[in-house]
Amino acid sequence: MAIPFFSLDLKLRDFLLIIKDIFLPYDKKGHEKKLKELLKDRYPDRYISILPSARLGFYLSLKFLLKKDDEVIFSSMSFPLYIKIAKQLGLKITLVDVCEQNLNIDYLKIEHKINKNTKAIVATHLFGYPCEIEKIKNICEKHNLLLIEDCAQSFNSKLNNIETGNFGDVGISSTSLLKIPTTLSGGILVTKNKVLSEKIDEWQEKYLKNNLTLKFQLFIKVILSILNSYPKIYSILSDKIFNFLIKYNPRIYRKVLYSGMGMNDLPYNPVERPRLAKYQISVGISQIKRCEEMNKIRKKYSEFLQKSFKDNNNIIVINDHYKEQWNHQYFVILIKNNFDKVHKEIFNLGIHAMDENVWDCSKYNFNIENVNDSFPVTEMVNGKLLRIQNNSFLNEKNIQDILEKIINGNNKI
Known about the structure:
Mean pLDDT: 94
Number of helices: 15
Structural class: alpha/beta
Number of strands: 13
């Protein structure tokens, strides 16, 4: 039986909500108000916008807060689409290398890259683990820079009991199909800037139409994703297709898996997705209420996996899953030697773990300002990262099976 690379942790109640809200799609604004009230507990002094995607929030933040030729500092391991969006808006990009211990931006190297044209820093909490956001905030205040937190993977992660997203001028979380919590595609933007919040809401009202075709396409994608969350169904529906693609056309396989990463040549389209439907908001409310419950299970699984890999000479666990106050959403390992062979062997054994070697933004044709710089830590880890399934939807037997097959696959090479 194959284990899918991600699973949606939905309960029976969520399925009933989806069915009810499709047939009774009324009072969506009331549901959105409830969702914002839940989020207000996490972001008490912020204005909150509910979006069809996190990337739209990022696009609109840059569009309304910065101007052409302004310079923005990113981590060298950032979401490639965000840099693509910044370039599309006419901004200039400088990259800063990451820390070896958690692969977040190295705050000690930031100030050397600030110049008179620098207007903002984008701080990514990669794999859900908080970066040194307080120190980065101090740098921004010292140099009068905007701080944008990329919290796409870090919802429910905290630093000193403060949730990520509360430190910057803007915080953007993803609630896409692959994220926890999920609204089955979507995003959340929080900001101290009332004018920005109003502009974003006005832009959505003006430009996001009720496109039934897009909504139907998204609904089909949601149904397929729900079905593929179950290992037995995934083994029937998708396992053989993915096996065929990875064997005969790995380029297409990679394109399917990373379709949302912005790796194609097309410009970002801000109206690519419709506004959230009522059923998506209902699922989001349910997911946020269950955040701690799901986090507790992921932490338990992650600690078990980390302990089991402790003495393996070829596998290093990125980040410490014994630490409290972060969401353990991504369990990422570094395979020191023979990554491609080990990954292929694990895949053949039915563990469809996610190749995470897409974050090195120095390798894309982004025409960055410091193109001649080297990024030694990024270069050292790129091509060696694998995300292991630790989703709360899986059971302990699934996790044990994942562990055994990874160890067997690694030992076989």
